[in-house]
UniProtKB/TrEMBL annotation:
The name this protein goes by in its record: Glycosyltransferase, GT2 family
Key words, A-Z: Membrane, Transferase, Transmembrane, Transmembrane helix
One GO MF term attached to the UniProt entry: transferase activity
Family matches, as Gene3D superfamilies: Spore Coat Polysaccharide Biosynthesis Protein SpsA, Chain A
Superkingdom classification of source: Bacteria
Membrane-spanning ranges: 387-406, 450-478, 499-518, 524-543, 559-590, 657-675, 682-704, 716-741, 753-774, 918-939
Length: 948
């Protein structure tokens, strides 16, 4: 027999005893030690006479070949292979030899493998391989041995741990394939043996207990290192491609490549990044050496005797990979369900610890409802729960109030949506934008999430905008409810009363409406307001006592922060400032925290990954001298700003709800400092509020000089953050008041004060909801721009059919824009605003309206301008000058006071084409990979590998 060992001292004593106790005599034992660094060589020397030592890089096929050479030419007819972690049952060899005597046509025989050390769980009773390269045993996961598979039968292959093989057959097949140094050589040997006309039997009466040390990662060798999965997957791909019939090889090559991509996605979904990379590395390793594959296939073809149809019945059925796919989806769903159940169980345990009596009573009520009928109990609880009824009524009123944005909507700060989702994809992916006179200014970050959403909504950008505006308030309500519930439980295990959470959630959810952002079509601020509670909820994970959960919170927070920043760029700057203040404060309180990387690392990671996720926007913006866009809100310029009383009231000047209602909130937040039980978290809220106010004050001093206009930096998001923090502070103050009343009772003065505060607080969401339902918005649509319809249709045929629109007169001044395609749509406002002035075109227009010549008309054609339009009221002096210009032909206009001309000269089809940059391609790839990695790190974890 041949025994191969590598660092197997923990198993070798039992294995040696198993060999010595065999009921059938073992004529000779040759032990091959492959560079063990433990006590294995000494144990082998004491047990056996013939021990060979070789280097640690020696593969298993090489070790077997050396063992065969050591047996000499007159060695035994049968060779028994064992691993140092495979312990044979005393009757194992006897059962294998008996089966060989009963079936002289069998050339390879293998034992039943059971798990070591459990000894009862089945591992293998013969193996085969699926068309996707999966090792198939035909056993259920964790199946125990109860004699249910004890018939001797023909199989494709058996494990080399316990393999009994005719020496002549093994040498005739060329031994084990040296291309498979550790894994998969048993499957390849069995497949080659079947093709050569040999039979492989599984003998369940023979039992070997196998620890599978290398597969489970218990033992690492120089051949596997830390990448066991890479070696296993490479072995599977090699085995399939080296042994597949020629007619199926092209299909197999494509299938394995596509399958590798799908498997990578699957591993990424369960946060197994290393295994996903191993999948790719294994595929590249095999596919990058086609010469080795051709040589292996030639060698197999020379010894082939059996037809492939005879071998096919030994392979796994074609449908098996699809069943495994369903099993994987089930495992993924189970992982997510288990995680949710774990969170719910912790919450129930905390609540039970805080108030055992009420928890027990609730459990009894649930049991009674189960006895009467679960559906009936749920309905009854809903109609008898005033908080649930109030929430439902609130959402219904909000949805009805948002009816103005159903369908295509624009106006105020909101430009029309493009015609198709592909327009947003083009805007995001291309380096050069055919807008105006052409520009390399990158698309803003929010274009990508809008494109994804529009694609999910069957390619309708208008539906995406409508969905965001309609669902913004309910989504903010949901997020605020979750946030306030968790914050309340951080203060007290019982949490805040549900009616108090209801007030806080409804008050905050109406902030984007009552501030005026919703009515003015400021989509960026509306979406940011809806996401802020979810961002704050994720950031609370930084306070988790478990370091792993803090790192998980970092990826969730970073992803949400990047999404908020894409719609409101100032969010990242504000997060950096707030993060520095909070970390500095925590370090001052607990000085040892700065030495613990798991304390400051997660918030730093959350902030640091945002530039990576938004790299295709940020870096080109800086390179194209358009960095001012990182301080502007989404939408048309100028954006919304607020300061002073408007900032405290949460209103953008005259756009929002009555300011007196908004001033109630800061008063409540100030009074929230009084209850002692919640004073510290309320002060933390006020620190964040002061940081937001200070950031707003600094930003209000910044003026951004753009090509066409000078605008102040955006202060819309700090206003939303300030209002959110004030809501949290006021809710905590109310909870502190309730805790004080529960502890000390409700004296008459306190009861009267509570009623007064509750009445004043209720005014805030009620006034906001009523104001929203009254329909205060500017989203009725844009006014007619005076451009004839046929010109618009012509411009939509290609970017070279541009329209030069000149407004104003000689006395008061002129300005111009170049309209292309379907006009300025959502996502293009910032690109055009940040594009530097085309001084040459400005000179051409200036000359055109004063002393036009043929050169100016030619310049227009070269720039892809087909029409020149003077919208109503057209300046007669300019119109007369253009009438007399050669090369310009008068064109009809729908409005008599609007004048238009067509350029007669041929248009340059490449007028607005520009250079393409590989840098953007690289940045888009980096962004895609970064998003994928962050999503994986946010996902639940499941490990489908067998554990020892």
């Amino acid at each position: 027999m041949l025994l191969v060992s590598h660092d197997g001292a923990r198993w070798l004593p039992a294995v040696i005893d198993g060999i010595r106790s065999q009921t059938a005599p073992v004529e000779r034992v040759v032990a091959i030690d492959t560079g063990s660094k433990d006590e294995s060589p000494g144990l082998l020397d004491l047990a056996f006479d013939d021990v060979r030592r070789v280097g640690g890089a020696t593969s298993y096929p090489e070790a077997v070949r050396l063992g065969l050479d050591a047996l000499g030419p007159d060695g035994p007819e049968w060779v028994w292979l064992l691993h140092d972690d495979s312990n044979p049952d005393p009757t194992c060899l006897e059962a294998l030899l008996a089966a060989a005597d009963e079936d002289p046509g069998a050339d390879l025989l293998g034992p039943k493998l059971r798990e070591w050390p459990s000894l009862r769980r089945l591992l293998e009773l013969g193996v085969t391989i699926s068309a996707t390269g999966r090792r198939e045993t035909g056993l259920e996961r964790g199946e125990y041995d109860q004699g249910q598979h004890d018939e001797v039968r023909t199989v494709l292959a058996v494990n080399t741990a316990g393999l009994l093989v005719r020496r002549s057959v093994l040498e005739g097949l060329g031994g084990l394939d040296p291309q498979l140094p550790m894994f998969g050589n048993d499957l390849d040997l069995g497949w080659r043996a079947a093709q050569a006309g040999h039979r492989t039997l599984i003998v369940p009466q023979a039992v070997v207990f196998h620890a599978e040390a290398a597969h489970r990662g218990v033992r690492r060798t120089p051949l596997t290192g830390r990448h066991t999965h890479y070696q296993e997957r490479r072995a599977a791909i090699w085995t399939l491609l080296a042994n597949a019939p020629g007619r199926a090889l092209p299909f197999q090559v494509v299938r394995l490549a596509l399958g590798t991509v799908l498997r990578m996605v699957g591993f990424l979904l369960v946060r197994s990044v290393g295994q996903a990379l191993d999948e790719l590395a294994a595929l590249v390793s095999v596919y990058s050496h086609p010469g080795d594959l051709r040589a292996a296939r030639r060698a197999r073809r020379a010894g082939r005797v059996a037809d492939h149809d005879q071998v096919r019945r030994l392979l796994a059925p074609w449908w098996l990979p699809y069943r495994h796919g369903l099993d994987f989806l089930g495992d993924l769903l189970a992982a997510a369900t288990d995680q949710a159940a774990d969170v719910a169980e912790r919450r129930r345990a905390a609540q039970a610890e805080a108030d055992p009596s009420s928890f027990a009573a609730r459990r009894v009520a649930v049991d009674d409802e189960d006895a009467l009928g679960e559906d009936t109990g749920l309905v009854a609880r809903f109609f008898t729960n005033p908080v649930a009824l109030a929430l439902t009524l609130f959402v219904v009123v909000v949805l009805v109030a948002a009816r103005a944005v159903l369908g295509e909507v624009s106006g105020g700060g909101l430009s029309p949506a493009p015609d198709a989702a592909r327009d947003w994809w083009d805007l995001h992916l291309t380096t050069w934008q055919p807008l105006g006179t052409g520009t390399a200014v990158p698309a803003p970050g929010y274009v990508l999430p809008l494109a994804l959403l529009a694609t999910l909504l069957l390619g309708s950008p208008a539906s995406a905008v409508t969905a965001l505006l309609v669902l913004a308030v309910p989504f903010a309500l949901w997020g605020a409810w979750r946030l306030l519930r968790v914050v309340g439980r951080l203060v007290s295990p019982r949490g805040a009363p549900r009616w108090l959470i209801l007030w806080g959630a409804t008050t905050y959810s109406l902030v984007p409406v009552t501030s005026g952002a919703w009515g003015d079509g400021r989509l960026g601020l509306v979406v940011a307001a809806a996401l802020l509670p979810w961002l704050a909820h994720a950031a609370l994970g930084f306070a988790d006592p478990d370091a792993d959960r803090r790192w998980r919170a970092a990826w969730r927070t970073g992803l949400l922060l990047a999404l908020v920043t894409s719609f409101a760029p100032v969010a990242w700057l504000l997060a950096v400032v707030v993060g520095l203040v909070v970390v500095a404060t925590a370090t001052a309180v607990v000085r040892s925290a700065v030495r613990d990387r798991s304390v400051w690392g997660p918030p730093a990671t959350a902030v640091g990954i945002v530039p990576v996720l938004l790299a295709p926007w940020w870096l080109p913006a800086v390179l194209e001298h358009a960095a001012e866009g990182l301080l502007l809100d989404a939408g048309r310029l100028p954006g919304l700003t607020a300061s002073g009383v408007d900032l405290l009231a949460g209103r953008f000047h005259e756009l929002g709800a009555p300011a007196w209602a908004g001033l109630v909130l800061p008063v409540l937040a100030a009074l929230a400092v009084l209850p002692r039980a919640t004073r510290i978290p309320v002060l933390v809220c006020w620190v964040v509020a002061l940081v937001a106010a200070a950031t707003t004050a600094v930003l209000s001093l910044v003026t951004l000089d753009l090509a066409a206009v000078s605008v102040p930096a955006a202060t819309g998001l700090p206003l939303l953050v300030l209002q959110g923090v004030l809501v949290v502070a006021a809710t905590l103050g109310g909870q502190g008041l309730v805790l004080a009343a529960r502890r000390d009772g409700w004296p008459t003065v306190l009861r009267g004060l509570t009623v007064l505060l509750a009445a004043g607080a209720a005014v805030v969401p009620l006034v906001g909801l009523g104001w929203f339902a009254a329909g205060h918005d500017e989203l009725a649509g844009d006014a007619d721009d005076g451009i004839p319809a046929y010109m618009v249709q012509s411009s939509e045929t290609g970017p070279e059919h541009g329209i030069l629109v000149v407004r104003g007169d000689v006395a008061t001044g002129l300005d111009y824009v170049v309209r292309r395609d379907d006009g300025v749509t959502l996502g293009e406002d910032e690109v055009l605003a940040l594009t530097a002035e085309d001084t040459e075109l400005t000179r051409v227009v200036r000359t055109l309206v004063s002393r036009p010549t043929d050169a100016e008309v030619s310049a227009l054609a070269d720039r892809g301008i087909e029409y020149v339009v003077l919208p109503s009221p057209a300046d007669p002096e300019i119109a007369g000058s253009l009438d007399a210009t050669a090369g310009l032909v008068q064109a009809s206009a729908e409005n008599r006071s609007t004048r238009a001309w067509r350029v007669e000269q041929p248009l340059d089809p490449d007028a607005v084409d520009g250079p393409r940059s590989w840098l953007r391609v690289v940045l888009l790839v980096v962004q895609g990979l970064a998003v994928l990695v962050v999503l994986v790190l946010c996902a639940p974890t499941t490990d489908r590998r067998r554990q020892p």
